[in-house]
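notes to self, project folder thing:

trying the whole complex as one job this time. last attempt i did each chain seperately and stitching them together was a nightmare. two parts in total, labels are on each line so i dont mix them up again. if this works i'll redo the older ones the same way
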Amino acid sequence: MMEIRTPKTHKAKRVLEKRAPKLVENGKKTLILHGTKTSATLSSVLMELYRLKKGGAIKYSRRNENIRPFESGGETSLEFFSQKTDCSIFAYGSHTKKRPDNLVLGRMYDHHVYDLIEVGIENFKSLLSFSYDKKIAPHEGSKPFICFTGEGFENVPELKQLREVLTDLFRGEVVDNLNLTGLDRAYICSAVSPTKVFLTHCAIKLKKSGTIVPRIELVEVGPSMDLVIRRNRLPNEGLRKEAMKSSKDKPKKKVKNVDQDDVLGKRGRIFIPEQEVGKTPLPDKSKGVKRERREGKLKKKNKEAGSASKKHKESE
Amino acid sequence: MDMDMETDQIYQIDVGNLLAFNPNHRFSSAPSSREELVKECVTEGTKLVQAIADTLFNLPSTETNDGPLVQLPPPTTKLPREKHLPRPKPPTKWEEFALKKGIQKRKKDKIVYDETTDKFKRRHGYDRVNDDNDIPIIEAKASDEPGEDPFAKRLDDKKKRVGKQEKNRLENLKTAAKAGALPSHVQLAVTGLPISGTKTQPKKIGKEALGDVAGLAATSTASGGKFDKKLPGEKPPKKQGKHHKVIHR
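result (full assembly):
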């Protein structure tokens, strides 16, 4: 037997609609979590990643025993968490003797693991250890510049994948309009060697240059770290094709009451309903009151008014 | 201008994502210390950010109270989607039928003239036209069965119609679910009730539980099952003997 289940509240309905597949998607959310053991370095890496991504990330603080992204069957609970939190990028930290300070970055497609890349963290410098003028500190949720340098990002397949994952992780939501004064952060990734990437986070100072384009100065605000490539898993070719599909037709919103005039340009029409002062709703005509009761109330009132006038006459 | 052309060729810039990539950078000499490496990376990064800013700040902008607003071009870097593209909803049984017969949808007025009361009334809902509940007397017909309550029958028929519609709705949603195009706010849940026409599967009773029952039955006689007829293969009850200790003096 099947049963149709629909949300009982409008809020629940809105939440479900937000999660549904869409033509133009919302930004990918990031899930940050760790395994049974983490080192001090790694836990601060995860914490600071969460701070950088605040507003678009969810951090889990409990230990997770069953997560082993690279092993078969080890991704079940990860996929469950992705479903639960509606996150499609994850950063999983673990610390073992074989792979110390291990960070697994991965993406999800339809709540199933899409691709994975494992990096070791070295030379980590926390954002607390940087000293700079706090006025230039980047604001939460601002759109970042992302820079990649080094030929490794084009030639080495692992680095190429890392570039894509980092772009997806940092870019945030795709926007149409951008306020130029809100630009205040940049991520810089450079391939130092075929297996090592230097990553840092900088604040931007816009200096006057005499032209429209300001001169840009970068100030390191941290965190900064080296990412050493370990294991990786590329997406399945079929899955990749499926995930890369994009619709050519943008969702068309019918524009009403706006037309283009050759001479006058864009013209709009405005409709103002007739203002009926005599019929302005009285307090007891509120929507909440049941129609039946309201009508009954009115009748009662009329009756009372009638009888009162009669009485009045009698007393006279 | 020549410089601009050069940088464009060197760098790959995606303004939609504020992304720049310099595939040709190479460290001139292996950086001796960490500071040197960081310095070189940051200067290289500054160049790239400047390159993005060059195109970004030259885009047509509109002034607002909070600052200049520019319209970003769509991103050129292709990244995988988060979820599949929304799938088209399959037509319902009625929609299929209507298409075959050429029945077209038409708008109906919300308010209809009611002849009996000489008023305009709603088509549906409270205080509607031709409401069955407004009829206090139903005339008897020759075909009426004696002993049947016409009012109850009317109510029953209505319930049946609603039930049928609900069944149709479920069927249509099932086909939509198969096509992966279930509306986002609807879930189809399997309930515990069996599918009509099939037998409910009896719960399996384990060996242990069965033995316990046999033992219990035995102890319920005064003699503790001592004189009961044993079935072939039946084992003696588990808990034998006295339950209470009586102290004799």
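what i see at first glance: The longest helix of chain A spans residues 291-315.
need to look closer tmrw
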